[in-house]
């Protein structure tokens, strides 16, 4: 018997799809009874996997190592980013990755802000950790969603980019000449002349300097950039690289020279001040924003637009198109003369 109508008009289901699995229930209508029978038969046929996948018990630090093995090793800053992530794991208590929540990260972020950390640096570290989950999920190494997907980055006031004035550049060059490093001035001049990052200029070799151009291959965006330079700078580069093959690491010597020069720079902008100086003067001298984007090697125009306000055309438009243009602001309108209270009283009377 599967479905049978009872004396009281109700419908009884008594079904045993497999031995030992029997289902019995009574319904008011036959349609309900038939649906129940079909559902019970399907539930027995579509049984759960007899050997379910074990839960992912890996620690957060283990996921970071896995990310580096599968993806991080292929990016230029992979090793440095891995060390940063492992330090974050330590600060979070290295929990099981599946038990990590957005609240854990927000709590760590609060502590870092209270200790004086820069908001932009905090956001960068958060982005790195979020990318670990996204990349491992994309590769199929984890089967759960990103626990940090709903956490929003901190909002902060964007800092003004600092650059050297025409008076400060000779001041810096003089301090670089006083440095014990033989190559620090030459690397700095390459950055000032091409807008290159310090690491890109330091990575130049003899074969990458030719035909009054320098070729940057060790770039952040992995894109090849060819930038023209003057004959004098090319000659000095060829002489130095012909003798020493490559530049020695001199970033520390540059920071010391900046301190000795008396030039005060905002926190965190020392290594990029030469790149900002090139871009700022390029725009102030009438350069094209799209050309600057290609010279700097930015992946999107959004990054380059930080320098757009320095363009003379941009400033002229602000002067020409503002709502007070053509309005005489040299004199202030005459103040209205106060009425005599006594006259008002007379009028009322």
Envelope shape: elongated
The H/E string reads EEEHHHHHHHHEEEHHHHHHH
The CATH architecture classification of the largest domain is Orthogonal Bundle
Structural class, from helix and strand content? mainly alpha
The helix tally amounts to 15
Q: What is the CATH third-level topology name of the largest domain?
A: hpI Integrase, Chain A
Count of discrete structural domains: 3
| CATH homology group of the largest domain | Intergrase catalytic core
State Rg.
Answer: 35 Å
Number of strands: 6
- The neighbouring-strand order within the major sheet is 1-2-3
Instruction: Note the gap between the termini.
Output: 109 Å
Beta-strand percent range:
5-15%
Query: Can you give the helix content as a percent range?
Result: 40-55%
Task: Give a short summary of the structure.
The chain has helices at 30-45, 60-70, 78-91, 102-114, 119-138, 168-177, 184-194, 198-202, 231-244, 251-261, 273-284, 289-296, 301-304, 312-320, 341-348, and strands spanning 3-5, 11-18, 21-27, 209-210, 213-216, 225-228. The protein is mostly helical and 349 residues long.
How are the secondary structure elements laid out?
Elements (H helix, E strand, L loop, with lengths): L2 E3 L5 E8 L2 E7 L2 H16 L14 H11 L7 H14 L10 H13 L4 H20 L29 H10 L6 H11 L3 H5 L6 E2 L2 E4 L8 E4 L2 H14 L6 H11 L11 H12 L4 H8 L4 H4 L7 H9 L20 H8 L1
Antiparallel strand pairs: 1-2, 2-3, 4-5, 5-6
Helix pairs in contact: 2-3, 2-5, 6-10, 7-11
